[in-house]
């Protein structure tokens, strides 16, 4: 390892421009003649659009155009689609309702766009948008997924009877039922997973520029996957053929999943640019972000677990209702199915699992993947019922888990996944030691002397990253392959550009990807440039989500580096008149082993480009590309232990200690990994204690600003106690597993297990607000609460 | 934001004259409520009259009777950091230091806060709890008379708060339970024993009519200044605000809890 190589705590190269305010985001882009878009949005959760009168708006100063859904449909712009086909257990395909980028007939959630105004200035566009008169006929709305399935509930889409999108199952139901019939102990419980708003720091934005002479579009946008955006815009939305559409995702300020999808606004900007003949820019304000960014989670489940006489788990049975909102977002169907139910085995050897998932339309913002995507919901369910079961049978929660751990690999679960590696005892041991688990009793007593209730809770999570083998996901309904591509371009002076299909929007790729190159050729990371986020520059890519950029994106870079190294060695052998097998790379030089002959890397690069002296048949240049398709998911896992203190007078929870022991496989930059875990844990603690997207019965989002939607702040979380254990992933060349989502996946159940331990009442939903905890405490201890 | 006309008067009289000229004018004191409301297009004042450049509204001075006079345009950060306030009424300085966040505290002003009378604001608790006097360009009012309801004050349409005068108490403290999202007060209790021996308990954040006093707590503390004296006093949840962050029952509980803590903190 060099100073900049694999395993080094290299400071982030990109931070110089971010910290000095020099990042270039979509809103920083300007094109001459640019107009501004403002959307006319529905104030109703469910209503017929009877008429749209734009005449007053069109007369206002600076207004270029007011465009509606009728014009959009008339121009042949396609409906938004969900790209992952799920079939119900009866074999019927999922029921996808029509979603138009501007809705001409029936709006189905508050904030849905019905028209767009393009004007010279943003203020003019907004003034005119207010002057567009839309005549709505309100319809009854439903926001709760369970209520939406009941007879007589308002119906959203004619395709979906009782608002049911699909009724899907996985696992062997008969085997599960048999196990329950012979169980010695059964624990059953209701488990909810609260709806969240992603809240990326940079709101979504788009700048679309149509070049009439070339019939070519350029779109700058806040995307985690610009090539996928181009593919979908081209193949399904009929915006333009791929070779006439360039998508650029410049610096992007956070995504958390919400910027995977193609949204109506980006489509409309492209279409409006052609319609009006001028570039069109739109930047979401924070209210639009709350109302239209795809939300996350929103599950309601019934879970049961069966044990034998030795307290070994014999079966898990789960019924889940997932709220997908008013329309099926791009990958929404996969989240509560293949990203959720396939992880229900947790870290445990469970012989039989059955899960039934019903997904439902409601008059709410569409729901899709949000940091963790399905895996937080699975982990919360598994780790809550594990904790509850341990309490019911009177066994230490750690010992109950340990007794049921998977210890041999590979391990085939009953729900598709084949875990390739791991050491769950190692992370549990490390976390328990760091948390001083054995002496918790003394700390609880000390807290009690201060009038505080102290509790401890753990979570042994597993997740699946590095999505995913293309053939496997194709067989499960995915509309795309999930490989990644890379190109390594050595310049004649020996500097190196790496073009990657991964996209960095906070992950630090410009640093970690450069570390790979530094490690390989012994050069400094300052001589390496990472190029990403532009379909005109980068060959192709599937983007960044599902903690895949390490395990998949970097594996593609490794394959390309292998090819560059092989060619360079061949050239070095030729130049130094040595055998190819004797060439070694050391400290930025290609050397002949056992001799003092060496050629610096930059000289080799120059020789490749001058091509004056090449081996017979070798092409000039030093540039190689590769596509990498993973062979399996990767399985990061670990143990989190949370310790809380509750103020019994107010119900307020303070997280006083949080230990995270993660196994991410090979780590490239520990500092960046720690940053990922800090962020993930904070989001998970936020979900457990603070965050909730709440609708009222009429379908208004009542938490549509930071006055009401509670984001975690620095003083809401403790100084985290992080550590890693390592088992290498056998499925990719670096042995990486992924670290981007683990914190958000593993932490919520640890927090809730700790609180319920402290208050002696297991009946507690997220977010565990002070009032909820206060009420749960009162229910558990009526005498004390009444004092 | 809608178009508006911005004014920067140099005197209170000029500001009052501008205010009297238009029914749709608004005073800008610190802008911590007005500006976000305008940006969201929920307010559309024809004229915005900026009070922040009027010298007569600035400054913190010790009054003859050992109290403190704070100009209406003094920011929360200035109150929190004022040597005079910290020496004479430390509870007031610490209350100001807990308002919002550093950005809010460096922009928001005492005059703006009390004239807006947000039921979740902190200052109304201090004014009523300390029996402060509000001075306007027209008159002086007691804090009890100044706050009249939710976002309502006794201010007349062309009246401008110029200063607030606080008497120094024998002891006082403010105990705040912040709304976890907004960090406004979900329930804040200001408990004070004044120099004349009288006791005041003022509650902000919880009441559906804004700041209110709890007579039963004041009586109990008059004879026995201790947390135990208020521990058994419950307020009616029927008069409490209720929202997604806290029900009326929960806020009623917090009034008692925070009152105990305020009394304990006052010593």
Describe the structure in your own words.
Chain A: GO terms for molecular function: iron ion binding; oxidoreductase activity. Chain A: Keywords: Molybdenum, Oxidoreductase. The complex is a heterodimer of chains A (787) and B (267). Chain A has 787 residues and is of the alpha+beta class. Chain A is built from 21 helices and 28 strands. In chain A, strands 3-5-1-12-9-10-11 form a 7-stranded mixed sheet. Chain A starts with 14 loop residues before the first helix and ends with a helix. The model of chain A has no long low-confidence stretch (mean pLDDT 96). With 267 residues, chain B is α+β, with helices and mostly antiparallel strands. Helices cover 35% and strands 23% of the residues of chain B. Chain B has helices at 12-21, 34-39, 76-81, 83-88, 90-97, 102-107, 110-116, 123-129, 143-146, 215-223, 227-231, 248-266; strands spanning 5-7, 25-28, 47-50, 60-62, 68-71, 133-136, 140-142, 147-149, 152-153, 161-166, 171-178, 185-193, 199-204, 212-213.
């Amino acid at each position: 390892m060099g100073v900049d190589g694999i395993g080094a705590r290299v400071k982030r190269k990109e931070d110089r421009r971010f910290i000095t305010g020099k990042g270039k985001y979509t809103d920083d882009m300007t094109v001459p003649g640019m107009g501004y878009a403002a959307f006319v949005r529905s104030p109703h959760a469910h209503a017929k659009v009877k008429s749209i009168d734009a005449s007053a708006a069109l007369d206002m100063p600076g207004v270029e155009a007011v465009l509606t859904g009728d014009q959009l449909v008339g121009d042949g712009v396609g409906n938004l689609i969900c790209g992952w086909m799920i079939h119900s257990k009866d074999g019927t395909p999922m029921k996808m309702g029509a979603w138009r980028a501007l809705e001409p007939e029936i709006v189905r959630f508050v904030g849905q766009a019905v028209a767009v105004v393009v004007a010279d200035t943003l203020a003019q566009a907004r003034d005119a948008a207010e002057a567009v008169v839309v005549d709505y006929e309100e319809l009854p709305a439903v926001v709760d997924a369970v209520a939406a399935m009941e007879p007589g509930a308002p119906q959203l889409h004619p395709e979906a009877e009782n608002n049911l999108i699909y009724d899907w199952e996985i696992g062997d139901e008969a085997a599960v039922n048999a196990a329950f019939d012979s169980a010695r102990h059964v624990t059953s419980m209701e488990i909810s997973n609260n709806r969240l708003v992603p809240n990326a720091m940079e709101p979504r934005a788009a700048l679309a520029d149509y070049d009439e002479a070339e019939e070519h579009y350029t779109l700058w946008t806040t995307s985690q996957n610009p090539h996928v955006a181009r593919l979908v815009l081209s193949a399904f939305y009929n915006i333009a053929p791929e070779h006439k559409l360039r998508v650029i995702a410049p610096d992007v300020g956070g995504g958390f999943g919400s910027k995977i999808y193609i949204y109506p606004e980006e489509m409309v900007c492209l279409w409006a640019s052609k319609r009006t003949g001028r570039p069109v820019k739109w930047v979401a304000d924070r209210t639009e972000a709350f109302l239209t960014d795809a939300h996350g989670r929103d599950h309601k489940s019934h879970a049961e677990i069966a044990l034998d006489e030795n307290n070994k788990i014999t079966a898990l049975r789960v019924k889940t209702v997932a709220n997908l909102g008013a329309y099926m977002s791009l990958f929404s169907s996969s989240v509560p199915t293949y990203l959720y139910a396939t992880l229900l085995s947790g870290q445990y050897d469970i012989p039989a699992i059955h899960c039934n998932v019903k997904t439902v339309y409601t008059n709410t913002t569409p729901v899709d993947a949000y940091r963790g995507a399905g895996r937080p919901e699975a982990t919360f369910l598994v780790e809550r019922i594990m904790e509850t079961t341990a309490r019911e049978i009177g066994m230490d929660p750690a010992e109950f888990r340990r007794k049921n751990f998977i210890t041999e690999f590979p391990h085939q679960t009953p729900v598709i996944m084949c875990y390739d590696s791991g050491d769950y005892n190692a992370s549990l041991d490390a976390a328990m030691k760091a948390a001083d688990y054995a002496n918790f009793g003394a700390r609880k007593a000390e807290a009690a002397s201060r009038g505080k209730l102290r509790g401890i809770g753990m979570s042994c999570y597993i997740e699946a990253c590095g999505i995913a083998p293309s053939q496997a996901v194709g067989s499960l309904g995915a509309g795309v392959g999930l490989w990644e591509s890379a190109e390594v371009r050595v310049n004649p002076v020996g500097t190196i550009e790496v073009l990657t299909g991964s996209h960095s929007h906070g992950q630090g790729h410009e640093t970690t990807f450069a570390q790979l190159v530094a490690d390989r050729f012994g050069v400094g990371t300052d001589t390496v440039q990472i190029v990403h986020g532009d379909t005109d520059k980068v060959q192709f890519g599937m983007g960044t989500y599902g903690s895949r950029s390490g395990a998949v994106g970097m594996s593609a870079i490794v394959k390309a580096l292998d090819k560059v190294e092989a060619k360079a060695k061949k050239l070095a052998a030729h130049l130094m008149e040595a055998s190819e097998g004797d060439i070694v790379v050391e400290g930025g030089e290609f050397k002949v082993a056992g001799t003092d002959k060496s050629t610096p890397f930059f000289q080799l690069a120059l020789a490749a480009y001058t091509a004056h002296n090449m081996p017979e048949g070798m092409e000039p240049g030093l540039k190689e590309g590769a596509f990498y398709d993973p062979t399996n998911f990767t399985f990061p896992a670990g143990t989190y232990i949370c310790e809380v203190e509750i103020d019994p007078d107010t119900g307020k929870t303070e997280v006083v200690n949080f230990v995270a022991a993660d196994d991410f496989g090979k780590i490239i930059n520990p500092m960046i990994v720690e940053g990922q875990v800090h962020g993930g844990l904070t989001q998970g603690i936020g979900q457990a204690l603070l965050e909730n997207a709440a609708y009222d019965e009429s379908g208004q989002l009542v938490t549509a600003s930071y006055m009401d939607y509670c984001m975690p702040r620095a003083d809401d979380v403790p100084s985290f106690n992080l550590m890693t254990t390592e088992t290498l992933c056998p499925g990719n060349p670096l042995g990486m597993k992924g670290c981007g989502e683990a914190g958000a996946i593993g932490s919520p159940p640890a927090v809730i297990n700790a609180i319920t331990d402290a208050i002696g009442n297991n009946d507690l939903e997220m977010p565990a607000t002070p009032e909820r905890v206060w009420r749960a405490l009162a229910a558990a201890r009526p005498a004390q609460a009444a004092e | 934001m809608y178009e508006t006309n911005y004014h920067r008067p140099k005197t209170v009289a000029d500001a009052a004259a501008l205010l009297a000229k238009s029914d749709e004018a608004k005073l800008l004191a610190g802008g911590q409520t007005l500006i976000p409301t305008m940006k969201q297009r929920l307010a559309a004042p024809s004229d915005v009259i900026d009070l922040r450049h009027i010298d007569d509204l600035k400054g913190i001075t010790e009054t003859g009777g050992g109290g403190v006079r704070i100009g209406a345009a003094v920011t929360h950060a200035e109150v929190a950091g004022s040597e005079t306030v910290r020496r004479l009424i430390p509870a007031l300085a610490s209350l100001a230091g807990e308002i919002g966040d550093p950005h809010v505290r460096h922009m928001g002003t005492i005059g703006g806060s009390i004239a807006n009378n947000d039921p979740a604001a902190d200052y109304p608790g201090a004014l009523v709890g300390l029996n402060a006097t509000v001075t306007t360009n027209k008159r002086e009012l007691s804090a009890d008379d100044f706050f009249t309801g939710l976002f309502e004050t006794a201010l007349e349409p062309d009246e401008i708060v110029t200063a607030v005068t606080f008497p120094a108490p024998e002891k006082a403290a403010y105990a705040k339970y912040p709304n976890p999202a907004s960090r406004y007060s979900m329930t804040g209790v200001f408990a004070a024993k004044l120099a004349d021996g009288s006791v005041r308990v003022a509650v902000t954040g919880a009441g559906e009519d804004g700041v209110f006093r709890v007579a039963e707590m004041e009586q109990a503390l008059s004879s026995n200044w201790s947390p135990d004296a208020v521990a058994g006093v419950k307020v009616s949840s029927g008069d409490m605000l209720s929202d997604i962050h806290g029900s009326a029952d929960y806020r009623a509980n917090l009034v008692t809890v925070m009152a105990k803590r305020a009394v304990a903190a006052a010593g």
